[in-house]
UniProtKB/TrEMBL annotation:
GO terms for molecular function: 5'-3' DNA exonuclease activity; 5'-3' RNA exonuclease activity. This is Polymerase/histidinol phosphatase N-terminal domain-containing protein. Residues 189-253 form the Polymerase/histidinol phosphatase N-terminal domain. It comes from the Bacteria. It comes from Streptomyces agglomeratus. SUPFAM superfamilies: Fucose-specific lectin, PHP domain-like. InterPro entries: PHP_domain (IPR052018), Pol/His_phosphatase_N (IPR003141), Pol/histidinol_Pase-like (IPR016195), TAT_signal (IPR006311).
Length: 819
């Protein structure tokens, strides 16, 4: 056992440890129905000072290697004890020792790894611990060892009982539930703040002062796994700022905010995903108390922080936590997928401020509430009637209009299918940024905001062609781990019909059409579904590869993001739909993006991005068998490539070229040789000298001369094209001419090279219709012309489109209908 000196119980132990953990005992443990109480493996206990007013017992033990473990040092408190002091030491080279205590009535305090000691009494307590009378009976110090050393970790606990006359109890003030005189309006607030009661460095008074300075109207004090913050307000409650009591429930399988708890209420955290129904029970209890549940920084990869309980089992996701990082970008990507599946989980942004160098309210939420009260604010947040901004300088006004109806974030706009929807985004306080509008089809419109910080974005869409619309504002300047910075993000406006049930993604069907060698088109027709007798395959995305034998291999992504494959020739389905298994044969594999390329030897290569962004590849053999997916190599040794969009093409020499938008938003290119080796990923330059190219859609195709051509949509919503020469050099992006304008606005694109050296291009225009163009071998373009819909009509609205070419000069187009 190391002989380090034990710190004073009242003092800061030194360097703070970023760990948040908590446990509780007795009736609370029984109610939780989780892990059994595990006595600490005490190897030695010695008591000194017996018969005096100060009795100290020393306990020594050793914890085994592991993180998800808890142990309890039990001791008895006789009548007459007025104060308990605890100090600890441990082998710091072996790991971290979390610390807390429970009394006969349950929870009395927690400090995790932030402190090595504490004291508590009726009159006072170390921050993180609840001041209240010391009850006689059974008490326990809780230890949360996180041990990395294979040999375990030695620890020591000193428990001191102080006898004496009873100490006066200090009552706490009740937080008001409303700020008087504040009616309906937009209110700014930060829901994730830490004080000295956990691992924060500010007092609550300093947090209040910082919130006022930022211009906030409400805050939530959410210290880790303790109720002590709420019971120590005394004469310092602000009259002009709504303070909401909260707790960051810090399990070792993800953190969540329980916002709106009554003062003194504590939420347990000793459970994991394997403890069926336990998290749901705690969430229901928080709801019964009028509170809100929020998954905090859910995709942070740090140990214990990554959310493992299911993103759709909370009221909201904290998609933006403190300064913008790659973790936040992943949060937004995952949240967007949930929106595309119709899951109405709200998004919030909070500062998670700990130290004075962390800016309170950056970011924060702007909430449209009936008044400035805890019930009204939490109700608005639960419904998503809010947006998040980087600072109080930023204001966003995002509305959807159809006829006389108007809706904002978190609200529904009644629509029939062909009603026109006018979306307007007004932004102030966001100089030199880009505003974008998203639906489930990706970016539908974008505009640049100049140095004044004021900008407006307008877009007209078709009613139920989209499930929702939301907006973002980003600054195209690097942050710590990204190439951009988030300035603002709104919750979605939802679209539904007043006469029909809410929007049903199952109505989207996979259609197929053929452009004959003479330039004429067959009628757009749905592909039969995967289920027996189903008239059409319902899905959210498709891809196609024209084979040497004249057949077309088609991929379809179903509404549940399962990947399916079939083979067609003309109007005939040659092979029924078959679900494609994931890595290691996983039958539940789901994907966000997929593409396929055909090779002259009868094989195909498939590339997909999983829901977490990991990119996988496999080769479909000539006999149709699938050997299984393998992850693509990343930028560094042993890393995996992550992407948001991906496209693949076959080259004449048997190699393949891949194009993707990485998780940093930039466009990258690499090649797979005939021998299966991969070249390093190279980042492409943007249009007109920009260092990178970012956007919502891309496609690549190989040409007979060994060159390849890229088609992509930029953040401005404009279609761009460029060529990669056979020597590997690039021509640079240029925008082809639009239907009636100098550029082509689109939401989806596809490109396919043909044997004569031309490239066939398809795009879903801003009108929702599918358009076709040809880039001739000399580099000139034909005008865009509309592809006819079913039965030769032109009234076919699509959300996603792909194209592939066959040796006979025909091309085949797959498209997902917009509803």
């Amino acid at each position: 056992m190391p002989s380090e000196q034990l710190p004073n119980a009242e003092s800061d132990p030194g360097p703070a440890v970023e760990r948040r953990s908590l446990l509780r005992l007795g009736a609370l443990m029984a109610a939780a129905g989780t892990a059994a109480l595990v006595p600490a493996p005490v190897t030695h206990a010695a008591t000194r000072g017996q018969g005096t007013d100060t009795v100290t017992t020393t306990y020594r033990g050793r914890a085994p290697q592991g993180n998800d473990q808890w142990a309890y040092v039990a001791f008895d408190v006789p009548t007459g004890v007025q104060r308990i002091s605890v100090s600890t030491s441990h082998d710091a080279s072996a790991g971290i020792l979390d610390l807390g205590i429970f009394g006969p009535s349950g929870f009395r305090g927690w400090s995790g790894g932030e402190r090595s000691g504490f004291t508590l009494s009726a009159a006072d307590a170390t921050p993180g611990y609840v001041p209240a009378p010391v009850e006689p009976g059974g008490w326990s110090v809780i230890l949360g060892p996180m041990v990395g050393a294979t040999g375990g970790m030695a620890w020591q606990v000193d428990v001191t009982l102080h006898f004496g006359d009873p100490l006066p109890r200090t009552p706490y003030d009740i937080l008001p539930t409303a700020v008087a005189g504040r009616g309906p309006g937009w209110y700014r607030g930060d829901l994730h703040l830490h004080s000295v009661h956990s691992d924060g460095k500010r007092t609550v008074d300093e947090i209040v002062a910082a919130a006022r300075q930022e211009g906030l109207h409400f805050i939530a004090t959410s210290d880790h796994n303790t109720s002590s913050t709420g019971v120590t307000w005394h004469g310092n409650i602000p009259a002009d700022l709504l303070v909401i009591n909260a707790e960051e429930v810090t399990t070792r399988h993800g953190h969540w905010l329980a916002v709106g708890l009554p003062q003194g209420e504590w939420v347990d955290w000793r459970y994991g995903p394997a403890d069926k129904g336990v998290f749901d029970g705690h969430a229901r209890r928080v709801h019964s108390l009028g509170g809100l549940t929020i998954a905090a920084h859910p995709l942070t990869p740090a140990a214990g922080s990554f959310w493992e309980f299911g993103l759709d089992r909370v009221d909201a996701l904290e998609v933006w936590n403190g300064p913008w990082t790659l973790d936040d970008a992943a949060n937004i990507a995952a949240w967007h997928v949930m929106l595309c599946l119709g899951k109405r989980v709200a998004a919030v942004g909070n500062s998670d401020a700990h130290s004075p160098s962390d800016a309170v309210g950056r970011p924060h939420n702007v909430v449209r509430a009936a008044n400035l009260s805890t019930p009204a604010v939490l109700d608005a947040l639960r419904k998503g009637r809010s947006y998040a901004v980087e600072s109080a300088a930023v204001t966003v006004d995002f509305t959807a209009r159809a006829g006389g109806a108007v809706a904002g974030p978190g609200e529904e706009l009644p629509l029939s299918f062909f009603d026109a929807v006018d979306m307007t985004l007004n932004v102030t306080g966001a100089p030199d940024s880009v505003a974008t509008l998203y639906t489930e089809w990706g970016i539908m419109a974008a505009t640049c905001i100049d140095g004044s910080g004021k900008g407006q974005l307008r877009w007209r869409g078709w009613g139920k062609a989209s499930l929702f619309a939301r907006a973002e504002v980003r600054r195209l300047k690097p942050a710590s781990t990204t190439l951009d910075q988030l300035v603002a993000i709104t919750n979605p406006v939802w679209f539904y019909s007043a006469k029909l049930p809410p929007y049903d993604v199952e109505r989207r069907a996979l259609f197929h059409t053929e452009r004959r060698p003479d330039g004429s088109w067959s009628s757009m027709r749905p592909l039969p579904g995967a289920a027996s007798g189903a008239a059409s395959f319902t899905g959210v995305q498709s891809a196609a590869a024209g084979m040497a034998d004249g057949s077309v291999v088609v991929l379809g992504i179903a509404p549940d993001n399962a990947l399916w494959l079939t083979v067609v020739r003309g109007a005939v389905t040659l092979q029924p739909w078959k679900r494609v298994a994931g890595p290691d044969g996983r039958s539940d594999f789901t994907v966000r993006e997929a593409d396929i390329a055909a090779f002259p030897d009868g094989t195909c290569q498939i590339v997909v991005t999983a829901m977490d962004g990991t990119t996988f590849h496999q080769q479909r053999r000539a006999d149709g068998t699938l050997p299984g997916f393998r992850a693509l190599p990343g930028l560094t040794a042993k890393s995996r490539w992550g992407a948001t969009k991906v496209s693949i093409t076959a080259m004449p020499d048997g190699s393949a070229q891949l194009l993707s938008f990485g998780t940093d938003g930039a466009m990258y290119h690499c090649a797979r040789g005939r021998d299966g080796t991969w070249t390093p990923w190279g980042r492409l330059a943007g249009y007109n000298g920009a260092p990178t190219f970012s956007g919502p859609a891309l496609a690549i195709t190989g040409m007979p001369d060994g060159s390849s051509q890229v088609l992509a949509i930029g953040l401005d919503g404009i279609v761009y094209h460029q060529q990669r020469r056979p020597d590997g050099s690039w021509t640079g992006f240029r925008p082809p001419r639009g239907v009636t304008s100098a550029t082509m606005g689109a939401s989806a694109v596809g490109i396919a090279g043909t044997a004569d050296g031309s490239a066939q291009v398809v795009a879903v225009g801003l009108d929702g219709r599918v358009w076709h163009n040809v880039r001739r071998p000399d580099g000139s373009w034909t005008p865009f012309s509309q592809i006819p819909g079913p039965n030769g009509s032109d009234a076919f609205a699509a959300g996603q489109v792909r194209i592939t070419a066959l040796r006979d000069g025909s091309t085949h187009v797959t498209a997902i209908s917009a509803g």
